[in-house]
Design a protein that fits this description.
Layout (H helix, E strand, L loop, with lengths): L2 H19 L4 E5 L4 H14 L4 E5 L8 H14 L2 E4 L3 H11 L4 H23 L1 E3 L5 H6 L20 H11 L3 H4 L13 H5 L3 H11 L10 H10 L13 H4 L1
Parallel strand pairs: 1-2, 1-4, 2-3
Length: 249
C-alpha cells in the first residue's frame, strides 16, 4: 500500500464517520473549479457514493472565469454527483443595496460569506453536512474568510499542506486543467493566492513544516510567516468569553 493509498483511506473513513455521527444524509461541497474543492468532492464521492454528495457551483457573473465553471461542472458530471449552479450576483446586489458596499476588503469577504449561507441552506434543508475545502497551509496562516469559506462542518484535507494537495490531486486523477491552474479565491479581478499573501505556496509550506518541528533550516521569510500565523489566530479559535462560573456557583 502506498502512502497516498493510506491517506485516502483514512480521509474516507473520517468522512464516513462525520456523516454517520451526525446521522446526516450526506454532504454538500462548494465546487469552485480549483484543486482543493476538486479533491474534496472526489474524496466525498469515494467515501459515501455519488448519491450522497451534492456539489454547489457558485460563480459570480462577470468575475468567475468561464473555465472555472466549466471545469467544476465537468468534474461533477465525471463523478456522477448531483450539482447545481447558483450565481451569487443577486445576493450581492441585494445585500449592498440594503447595507452598502463597504470598503474593498469587506466587499470581497461578503462573497464567501454568501456562499457559506447558500451551502448551509442546502445542508439544513436536506440534512447534509458541509464538507469544507480548506487545507493546512491556509488554515495555519488564516488565509480564509471567517464565517465564509471557514464556516464548515469538517475539513477532509485540513491536515494537508497546499503542495501536498497537488500531490493528492495527481493521485486521485483530478483533471490536469484543474491541477495546473494558478490558485485563486476569485475575490477580485487578477487576484491570486500567492500574490495576495506575498509568498509562493512552495516556500510557505517549507517554512510551515520547519516551524512545526524547529527553526533550523527555515528560509528568510519565516518572520513574515510567523506574523501571518499570529494575525490569523482568531480565525482558528472559538469566540472567547469571560469566565463567570466562579461568581455564580
Amino acid at each position: 500500500m502506498s502512502k497516498w493509498d493510506a491517506i485516502v483511506g483514512k480521509i474516507s473513513e473520517f468522512i464516513g464517520q462525520m456523516v454517520g455521527d451526525a446521522v446526516a444524509e450526506g454532504v454538500v461541497v462548494g465546487v469552485s473549479g480549483g484543486v482543493d474543492s476538486a479533491c474534496v468532492v472526489t474524496l466525498c464521492k469515494k467515501a459515501l457514493g455519488s448519491n450522497k454528495v451534492t456539489g454547489l457551483i457558485m460563480p459570480e457573473k462577470g468575475l468567475t472565469p468561464e473555465e472555472d465553471i466549466r471545469d467544476a461542472i465537468n468534474l461533477c458530471k465525471k463523478l456522477d454527483v448531483e450539482y447545481h449552479v447558483i450565481e451569487i450576483n443577486p445576493f450581492i446586489e441585494t445585500f449592498i443595496k440594503v447595507v452598502g458596499r463597504g470598503n474593498e476588503r469587506a466587499y470581497a469577504n461578503l462573497k464567501p460569506r454568501i456562499r457559506m449561507i447558500i451551502l448551509y441552506h442546502h445542508a439544513n434543508n436536506r440534512n447534509l453536512l458541509v464538507a469544507g475545502t480548506g487545507n493546512k497551509t491556509e488554515l495555519t496562516v488564516g488565509y480564509f474568510t471567517k464565517y465564509g469559506d471557514g464556516g464548515v462542518d469538517f475539513l477532509p484535507i485540513g491536515d494537508l499542506y497546499k503542495t501536498e494537495v497537488f500531490q493528492l490531486a495527481e493521485y486521485l486523477g483530478i483533471p490536469e486543467e484543474i491541477i495546473r491552474k494558478t490558485p485563486s479565491a476569485g475575490l477580485w479581478k487578477g487576484q491570486t493566492d500567492e500574490s495576495e499573501m506575498g509568498i509562493a505556496y512552495e516556500e510557505l509550506d517549507s517554512i510551515l513544516k520547519a516551524l512545526s518541528k524547529d527553526k533550523s533550516g527555515i528560509k528568510s521569510d519565516y518572520e513574515k510567516v510567523l506574523q501571518m500565523i499570529d494575525k490569523g489566530a482568531h480565525k482558528r479559535e472559538m469566540p472567547p468569553f469571560v469566565e463567570l462560573r466562579s461568581l455564580i456557583e
